[in-house]
Each structure stands twice: as C-alpha cells, then as structure tokens.
Amino acid sequence: MSIEIKELLDKIEDFFRYQEELNLPVFASESTSEKTKAKKLNTEFIDYYLKNIEEDFVKANSLSELDAMINQCQKCPLGKTRTKFVFGVGNPAADIVFVGEAPGADEDAQGEPFVGRAGKLLTETLKKIGLQREEVYICNILKCRPPNNRDPLPQEVEKCEPYLLKQLSLIKPRIIVALGRIAGNTLLRKNETLTNLRKNIYNYYDIPLFITYHPAAILRNMGLKTTFEEDLIKMKNYYDNLIQ
Ligand code: URA
Q1: What pLDDT was estimated at residue 39?
Q2: Which atom of ligand 1 is the closest one to the Cα of 182?
Q3: Residue 115 CB–ligand 1 contact under 6 Å
Q4: Atom of ligand 1 nearest to the CA of 183
Q5: Hey, where are the domains in the chain?
Q6: Is 52 buried (19+), middle (13-18) or exposed (0-12) by CB count in 10 A?
Q7: 169-192, pLDDT tens digit by residue?
Q8: Which of 3.40.470.10, 3.40.630.30, 3.40.50.300, 3.40.50.2300 is the CATH number of 41-243?
Q9: What's the whole-number mean pLDDT along residues 141-157?
C-alpha cells in the first residue's frame, strides 16, 4: 500500500473515531450541528453526578461563592502542606477550560494556576493562536500542591475532582483541554502515553476533551513547541466550527 493511501486511511479512521467518541453521527447535517451546539452547553451529566453529593459546595451559585466555600478544605493531607489554595482563574463563562494536574511551587505561593514559567509559555501560546488568558478559564484537578510536585494520588483526586466538576457546572464550557499526560489520564481514568492520548477527542461528562502537552514538557524540550501549538490550533478550529 502506498504511503499516501495509508495516510488517507489513517485519517478516515481518525475521523470515524472522533465521531464515535463524541457520539456524533458520521455525516452531520447542519441541523445536527445545531443540536450538537446546544448539547455542549448543558451539563446535565455533571449535575446528575453532583446531585448525589450531600455537601454545601454543590449549592454554590457562582465561582466566587464556590471558592469561598471550599478554600479552607482539609479533606486530604495536602490541606496541611499547601501555602495557598489554588482555585482557578479566568472568565467565569469561558467556552474553553484548561485543566492541569495540580499547582506547582509558584502557583502554591501565589494562589493562581499556571503563573510560573510553564504558565507564561501557556499564556504566550494562547495569544499566538488568538486567545487571551482572560477569556478562557484555567484550573487544576487538585487545588493544592502535592509535596515536591509528585503526581496526584487517587485518594486526593477522589476528594478534589468534585470541585472541578462543580466549577465546570457553573462555567458550562464547550471544550476542555487537559494539559499533560497526568491530567488527561486522571480525568479519563486511563493509563496511556501522551502520544496515544493526543490522538483523540474524548468525552468528559459529555464535554469534548482535548489532551495535549503540559507546557512544562515544552520547556524541557523546545522541539515539541510546534506540535503543542498545532494541537491548540486544532482545538481552536474545532471550537470555531462549533460556534459558527
Ligand atoms: N502545573 C500544573 O499542572 N498546574 C499548574 O497550575 C502549574 C503547573
């Protein structure tokens, strides 16, 4: 088989997989894409999940109210070791939400996600693809820094992920972008390489989920910068199609 035909077949296979992941018919008509647009704005899957949690934070009516309700959290040992609780930052009605794994040292000190070198690279890359940091929302799965930046533990994720879900239920984004292998695998309960995770668009509580590099990985290997930018451009094109 020639290389061109193989590439074409791979692309067709990717297309079918995307449609399947998003529960979309293979050939979407205009009216279908209208329906899809509406579907992306509702968070009934998340709300159904939150309904079963008997805690006050699920009743928060705004992000600032939610922040005030949870920022003294001591549900896991990270509550004792954190400097600042890192709730999230950005547009409370953002269409695109970026999710990292957990705050690092700079974020722990300042109380804002992605403010260190990796965060600056993220902000610059967003600008490059036509998005301002202020127009998207940026947060993490864990709101407190794990000591020495170790990976989040399953029991920490179990306590903290409901906070992320409540944030998403208030923001109602059309797209989520997980930054890095750990964030992607944690949200999807998978254990895949980033190379594999990047191949698809997933579905997180009925919201399309893209997975790309963590900006810190780009700082370690600047050769990946173009691929990172290309991933974000793909996501942005998908978003532009969704809203047109
Ligand atoms: N890495 C993350 O995953 N999140 C941050 O907020 C900073 C670095």
Answers
A1: 45
A2: 3
A3: no
A4: 3
A5: 41-243
A6: exposed
A7: 999 999 999 999 999 999 999 999
A8: 3.40.470.10
A9: 98
